[in-house]
Amino acid sequence: MTDWRARRGPIGVLTGAGISTDSGIPDFRGPRGVWTENPIAELLSTYQNYVADPALRVRAWQARRDNPAWQATPNPAHLALVRLAESGRQVGIITQNIDRLHQRAGSGTVVEIHGNMFEVVCIDCEFTTSMATTLGRVAAGEPDPACPDCGGILKAATVMFGQQLDSDAIREAVHIAETAEVFLAVGSSLQVEPAASMCAVAVDAGADLVIVNAEQTPYDDYAAEIIREPIGDALPRLVSEILGDS
Asked: Model confidence at 37, in pLDDT bands (50, 70, 90)?
């Protein structure tokens, strides 16, 4: 069987929280994950609870204010994907992350399947604004700021549990998976669908699946290779191997 590194076609990449841990952003389900150490934090990510409970929204705005992603910078894993694209390879990134570290690193094609933390939307109208503006209102004494246009509930432009994913983002993600010859799943538990199912989409279309993750995933049996090394070391090395660096 030909080694997957020798394939020259498009490369799809699915990234989860694990790729950002070296930037100081904790993952969710790992041994020291946000939800592992603080189960109440998962409630903050559930849409129905958020809408129904003003006290929970107050906690959510405090959590957004204190999110370590504000101080985070791209790490060697993010930069390795930029290097891969700059070499001339076609690289499409599907990310479950909301931190925009891929874009800040310089990656061009990034599908944010779960939205982002830098924008705020109203659940009742089409109002949008920046997270910085809304956190300014929180700092000024509005613990649960309402929509200035309609008085509705504001939330981060992230996809919470119980919300529908953006259909355009799903369509773009499927296209990346279907057209990839190599599909890298990096730092994702592959437990959240439909993001995780992009692995199956890619394999069904003929791609070689490579999983880089510390823990076992439901898609390990589909993989041409599984790498358990730290992502900040493994991904730069894999990119060097793909590019044939000596």
From this structure: low
62 and 180 share a domain? no
pLDDT tens per residue across span 47-86:
999 999 999 999 999 999 999 999 999 999 999 999 999 9
Query: Which residues form the catalytic set?
Result: 114
Token pair, residue 62, equals 């405090």
Last residue of a domain, one of 158, 187, 222: 158
Looking at the fold, whether 237 and 132 belong to one and the same domain comes out as: no
What is the average pLDDT value for the chain, to the nearest integer?
Answer: 92
Residue 12 has phi, psi (to 5 degrees) of: -100, 145
Tokens of 156: 């981060």
Asked, as a colleague might, if the bond just before 194 is cis with ω within 30 of 0, I would say yes
Alpha-carbon distance of 181 to 160, in angstroms, equals: 31
Check pLDDT > 80 for residue 201.
Answer: yes
Check whether residue 139 and residue 232 sit in a common domain: no
> In sequence order, what are the beta bridge partners of 130?
119
User: What are the tokens at 221?
Assistant: 């049996």
Number of domains in the chain: 2
Sheet holding 115-122, edge to edge: 128-130, 115-122, 154-158
Question: Would you say 199 and 14 are in contact if contact means Cβ atoms under 8 Å apart?
Answer: yes
CB atoms near residue 141 (< 10 Å)? 7
